[in-house]
Amino acid sequence: MTARQRFALNLGSAATFGRNSLIALVFWSCFPAAWAANYGTGLTNTTWQLEANQYYCKFYQPIPQYGLAVFYHEAGRDLEFYLQATRNQMALGQAALTIEAPEWRSSALTSELGYVVVRDRDIPLRVDADRTRRIMGELANGMAPTFTRRASYGSESIRVRVSPVEFTAFYNDYLACSAGLLPVNFSQIERSVVNYPSGGEILNATAQTVLNNLVDYVLADERILALEVVGHSDNVGTRYDNRRLSERRANRVTDYLVEQGVDPSIIRTDYQGDRFPVATNDTAAGRAINRRSTILVVRDSGDADDPLNGLPDFDAR
User: Fold this and answer.
1) What CATH number did the domain enclosing 66 receive?
2) Most CB within 10 Å of its CB: which of 14, 23, 87, 133?
3) In sequence order, what DSSP letters do the residues of 135-178 get, joined into one string?
4) Are residues 170 and 279 in the same domain?
5) Is residue 176 in some structural domain?
6) Are 229 and 293 in contact (CB under 8 A)?
7) Residue 24 domain-assigned?
8) Residue 188 pLDDT
9) End-to-end alpha-carbon separation of the chain, Å?
10) Are 64 and 122 contained in the same domain?
11) Is 206 contained in some domain?
12) In terms of DSSP H, where are the helices of the chain?
C-alpha cells in the first residue's frame, strides 16, 4: 500500500469516527447528567380521597407506582403530612422539600421548605405540623409540594410531587371531618390521672378537664368495656388515714363520672392508700405525684371492624 493510500484510509477512518462521535454526543445530550425518577399525577389523573370518622381524618392522594401522600389528623393531635411508600426507593438521610409550580403554572416561583428525614419504614417521611399547614396552603394556591432525595440503589434522584388538582374541591370535606373529631384520642385517656394537694380530695378545674375529656371519649366510643378507678395517697399521716383518704378520692371521681353520664355498671372503684407510690415520698415533688386517682380505660379492640385499625403504623417496615 502506497503512502497516499494509507493517508486516504486514515482520513476516511477519522471522518467515520467523527460522525459516530457526533451521533453519540447528540444522543447522550438528550439525557440529564443525573437522571431522576419522577412520581406524581397531572391534570387528568389526580384524585383525592377522604377517610372520615370521629377518631381521625385521613385526606390523601394516591401516587401511581409510589404510594400515598397523606394529610393525617388524629383526634387530640396536630395535623401532619406523610408519604407512605409501597416500596421506599429513597436513600436514608434528608429529603429536600420544595414548593414548585406544576407544568401549567411554569412562571410561579419555587420556594424551599428545608429537609425532611427519610427513614427505613413503610412511612419513610413525616412532616411537622407547621410545614404541614404550609403544604396545605400551597396546594390550595395551586402549587405542588415536591420531595427529592437520592435513590437508595444508585446516583439517580427520586422525586415525589403532590398535585394541587382538585384539592380545593375536597378541602371543605376535610374541614368538616376535622371539626367533628373528639377532643382526645384513646391513647391520651387510656390511663388518666388526676392529682390533689396535700390532704385534698376535691376535684379542681384541672382534674375536671381531665375527666371531662375522658367522659367525652367514653360516651362516644361504643367499644369501651370498663373503667377502673383507683385512689392513692402519699405517705404523710397514718396508714389508716391514708387509706380512707384514697377511698374518698376514688369515690369522688366515680361520682363525677356518673354525674356526667357514664354508666355506673362499667365502673370498678378501688383504693390503695400509700401502698403503691409511683415516685419517691422523700420529696415534695414526689409526694405530689403520689397523691392521685388513676382511671384505666378498658376497650374492646383488635377485630377487623375496629375503626382504630385505620391509625397509621409509623414504625412498620
Assistant:
1) 2.60.40.2540
2) 133
3) HHHHHHTT-EEEEEEEBTTSS-EEEEE---TTHHHHHHHHHHHH
4) no
5) yes
6) yes
7) no
8) 97
9) 71
10) yes
11) yes
12) 3-28, 129-140, 167-179, 186-189, 205-220, 239-259, 284-290
What is the spatial distance between Cα 157 and Cα 147, in angstroms, rounded to a whole number? 10
The x, y and z cell numbers of residue 195, run together, are 392529682
pLDDT in tens, 108-141: 788 999 999 999 999 999 999 999 999 999 999 9
Integer Cα distance of 197 and 292 in angstroms: 9
How many residues are there in the chain?
317
The domain in which residue 202 lies consists of: 186-309
Q: State which amino acid sits at residue 297.
A: V
User: Are the CB atoms for 92 and 120 separated by under 8 Å?
Assistant: yes
How are beta strands 36-39 and 157-161 bridged, if at all?
parallel
Residue 71 lies in a domain: yes
* Domain total of the chain: 2
Of 311, 56, 78, 49, the C-alpha closest to 180 is: 56
Q: C-alpha grid cell for residue 30?
A: 438528550
Domain boundary among 181, 201, 236: 181
Q: Cβ distance 217 to 189 under 8 Å?
A: yes
Identify whether residues 235 and 301 lie together within a single domain: yes
161 and 226 both lie in a single domain: no
Residues 93 and 63 reside in one and the same domain: yes
Helix axes 205-220, 239-259, angle to 10 degrees: 50
Give the domain CATH number at 247: 3.30.1330.60
What span, in angstroms and rounded, lies between the C-alpha atoms of 229 and 20?
A: 85
Q: Tell me, yes or no, if the pTM score tops 0.85.
A: no
Nearest to 55 by CA among 78, 74, 79: 74
**Shared domain check, 217 and 164:** no
